Amino acid sequence: MTVPAPRIQAWAYPRGPRGPAPRLAVGGLRRYPRAVSVVRLRNAVALAGRFPALAGLDLDVAPGEAVLLQGPNGAGKTTLLRVCAGLVPLHSGEARVLDHDLTRSADRRAVRRLVGLIGHASFLYDELTAWENTRFWARAAGVDDDSAQSALVRMGIEGRLRDLPVGSMSAGQKRRVSIAAVVARRPKLWLLDEPHAGLDQDGRDTVDQLVRDATAGGATVMVASHELERARAMAPRAITVAGGMVVADTAATAGSPGVSRLPGVANVG
Amino acid sequence: MWGEITLVTGKDLRIERRSRVGLTQIAPFAVTVLVLFGFALEGDSATLRTFTAGLFWVAVVFTAILAVQRSFTVESVNDNRDALRLSGLDPIAIFLGKAAALVIELLVLEVVLGCVVAVLYGGSVHSAGLLGLTAVVATIAVASAGTIYGVLAASLRVRETILPLLLLPVLAPVLIAATRAFEDALGEAAVNGWSWLVLLTLTAVVYTAFGALAFGTLLEES
Question: Which residues in chain A are contacts of B83 at CB distance < 8 A?
Fold first, then answer.
């Protein structure tokens, strides 16, 4: 099958699974000034029913940064990602994402076009093929079909697999399509909730490379994961969330202890 | 906006074509309803012809409930409702796109039902123009109301049972107006079908306008 050449943009992650690294067009970079946070939360409270899933959370994420969110089940990681995606409204506090005030419903809607969320669900239509799903979400975001095609190739969905209904795919294959649908949209802020779940070794490596390419291209990535070793390798900064609050903010690298950025909070390595 | 509407409509129609739920479940259900009406009225052809219009639209309304449920079930699976919210699509375009897909599905179904009615109940058409216009306008009203209440019920755990309860009262004016207009078109009653068509058109416009304005809020809040 002939694969159309992707248009290279800073956050388009155009490199194939084993293809050569592209020369990024610097003029096409969509970078934010370093002084402006892509994500800025202050005393953010978000409710899940009556339960405060976020209980006064403070967070700043700089442009081009890759941040690992870690913490026990029910700590508030998923809710934090959904708040940043504009899906969950704040009960109180402040939230600015990509210069949008998320306390305003119009801004919450506007920011969604700029973020890419990979959640626990696939966000795919089982009756449609991998190609139809990816193309639908790409077109919905105003992105051309070439991006959808490139994203599928990047995730290893090619040939017969491309035209297979998603409902008849394995969980890992669905996950790949799901990630491709997000890649195709070229988000400025990646919100990844357990992105490695269900993927084989090759798929996990591809996701890691995607994140590295994304940040290299100026996009920002927040990834919640329980696979700490792998996640730390791609996200130098680790934030520990517990009880709906940030309890530690650590610059961590694989194999080395981190440095707490919060006074009075223990390192999390 | 137009591109987004056709995108959503195309997606819904493609899903229905693939799943064949309309062909294998909804259409047989509609035909069964019409056959059962025939049995209930003891196959009396004169009585059946008298009530053809009403029986036809009751069957359409019942099947519309199934079609609406189906339309929003595909959005509930895999959290696609959240995906639609994240998509960046204009909520008005989502509403109009989903309603348009329902209109097309229901119109196809009505053609099938019309053939079944002609075979089972007999009768003749006196005003094809009135018949066709009534079918299109009433279907738009049914699809618009169905899309509004479909998204409202989709987030509820009891959506399968609550949807008919919510939708049927709202569709009552459509059922009455469409039946009267059809009776005139079939020459079964001495009523002015065109005036009922005007009422039907007003209803369709109100439902569609309300749906277009409210859908975004319903998608967010319900």
Answer: 123, 137
Angstrom distance (rounded) from CA A254 to CA A231:
9
> Looking at beta carbons, which residues of chain B come within 8 Å of A120?
79
Task: Establish, for the pair of chains A and B, how many residue pairs have beta carbons separated by less than 8 Å.
Answer: 65
Report the predicted TM-score, pTM, of the whole model to 2 decimal places.
Answer: 0.84
Rounded distance between C-alpha atoms, residue B68 and residue A125, angstroms: 17
ipTM beyond 0.95? no
Smallest Cα–Cα separation from A184: which of A120, A109, A122, A133? A133
Q: Which residues sit opposite A220 in a β-bridge?
A: A189
Q: What is the 3-state secondary structure (H, E, C) of chain A?
A: CCCCCCCCCCCCCCCCCCCCCCCCCHHHCCCCCCCCCCEEEEEEEEEECCEEEEEEEEEEECCCCEEEEECCCCCCHHHHHHHHCCCCCCCEEEEEECCEECCCHHHHHHHHCCEEEECCCCCCCCCCEHHHHHHHHHHHCCCCHHHHHHHHHHCCCCHHHHHCEHHHCCHHHHHHHHHHHHHHCCCCEEEEECCCCCCCHHHHHHHHHHHHHHHHCCCEEEEECCCHHHHHHHCCEEEEEECCEEEEEEEEECCEEEEECCCCCCCCC
Considering only the beta carbons, identify the residue of B7, B18, B78 that sits closest to A139.
Answer: B7
Residue A125 has its nearest CB partner, among B15, B82, B220, at: B15
Q: What is the pLDDT of residues B109-165, one digit of tens each?
A: 999 999 988 888 877 888 899 999 999 999 999 999 999 999 988 877 777 788 888
**Residue of chain B whose Cα is closest to the Cα of A165:** B18
Please answer yes or no on whether B80 and A113 come within 8 Å at the CB atom. Answer: no
